[in-house]
Amino acid sequence: MVKDFDVICIGAALVDIIAKIKRHPIEDDEIYVPNLQLMSGGAAANTAYSCALLGLKVAFLGKIGYKDEFGKKIINDFKEVSLNITLIKYSQEQSTGLAYVAIEKSGDRRIYAYSGAANSLSSEEIKSEEILKAKTIFLSSLKNLEPFKKAAKIEKKKIYQ
C-alpha cells in the first residue's frame, strides 16, 4: 500500500523568540537585548521541518491558535519546505504557543515556554485514517500524553496486522 507521507510528526509547534544576550539578569535587573529573532519551534515542528528539508514527504499534526499571527508564521514556514499542513488542528480558545529563549554568549540559556494551543490537542483529534497515511510517526514535545498514546496504539495495530 502506497502511503501519502513518509512521516507524520505529532506534537508542539510554537514560535520561539530568541534573544542573544551578554549575561543573564540578576534579580530586579534589566538586560539590553541587541537583537530578537522570531523562529518557528517546538520539537515535533522542528523535526517535521528538518525531514521536509531532507526531501521526505512530511505532515505535521498538532494544534495552533486559530488565525493568530504566530500560527500564520508557522504555517508559512511549513509551506516554504512543502510540509503538509492538512492535519493541523486549530483552537478557538487558545493562541499559538510561544517560547522566549535567552541565550548568553557562553551558550547558557533560559527558556520561558507558554504551550498555548499545543497542549490542548486531544486524543479525539487523533484520527486513525490520518495516522494510517504515514509510513511512520514521530511523537514529541507535549505534556499532554493522551494524543500520543492514541497515535501509538493506532501505529502498533498497523505494524502488527
Please describe what this structure looks like.
This protein has 161 residues and is of the alpha/beta class. It has a domain at 12-121: 3-Layer(aba) Sandwich (UDP-N-acetylmuramoyl-L-alanine:D-glutamate ligase). Helix content is 25%, strand content 34%. The chain has 4 helices and 9 strands, in the order βββαββαβββαβα. It has helices at 43-53, 69-80, 128-131, 146-159; strands at residues 5-11, 14-21, 36-41, 58-61, 63-65, 89-91, 96-104, 109-116, 134-140. A 4-stranded mixed sheet has the order 3-2-7-8. Strands 4-1-9 form a 3-stranded parallel sheet, with helices on both faces. It has a two-stranded parallel ribbon with strand order 5-6. The longest helix is centred in the last third of the chain and has 14 residues, at 146-159. The protein is elongated.
